[in-house]
Amino acid sequence: MPKEDRLRRVVMLCRDFARNLAYYRVGQKDEHRHLFDPAKNDGANFWRVINSNCIDVCVLEWCKLFADERGKHYWGKIVTDPAGFQKGLLRHLELDEAAFQKEIEAMRRYRDKFLAHLDS
Questions:
Q1: Rounded to the nearest 5 degrees, what angle is found at the Cα of 60, between the Cα atoms of 24 and 91?
Q2: Burial readout 19-39 (b: 16 or more C-beta within 10 A, e: otherwise)
Q3: Which residues, 6+ apart, have CB-to-CB distance to 96 below 8 Å?
Q4: Exposed, middle or buried, 67 (CB in 10 Å: 0-12/13-18/19+)?
């Protein structure tokens, strides 16, 4: 796949991640919590599922970008300065490399055990 096409797809992944995170966060705001309460809303289950799906999509897209080093869309295959990008990312997140690896492992575990494969 040409680098330009891959970059376009990574931008789409980032967009989808950001959109779903925004939708999830809106659902968590106090003014929308009544949507999740069956006593106040007959469609509460629908809104619960939608909100949960938004965070699940975030996990899937995030893992494509940060947790799958062999994946087509892994950040290390996209950026022109991987060392500089990683340094800036860790500084922005206020994490060291070991702490970021723990986050990657947690996201990967959630994805593998509950989203992608639903282990028993």
A1: 80
A2: ebbebbeebeeeeeeebbeee
A3: 90
A4: buried
Predicted confidence at residue 68, as pLDDT, reads 94
Does the pLDDT of residue 81 top 90, yes or no?
yes
Nearest to 75 by CA among 66, 87, 83: 66
Can you list the alpha helix ranges (DSSP code H) found in the chain? 3-28, 44-66, 82-93, 97-110
- C-alpha 33/C-alpha 51 separation (Å) is 11
pTM to 2 decimals? Answer: 0.87
CA–CA separation, 71 vs 77, rounded Å? 9
Q: How far apart are CA 7 and CA 29, in angstroms?
A: 33
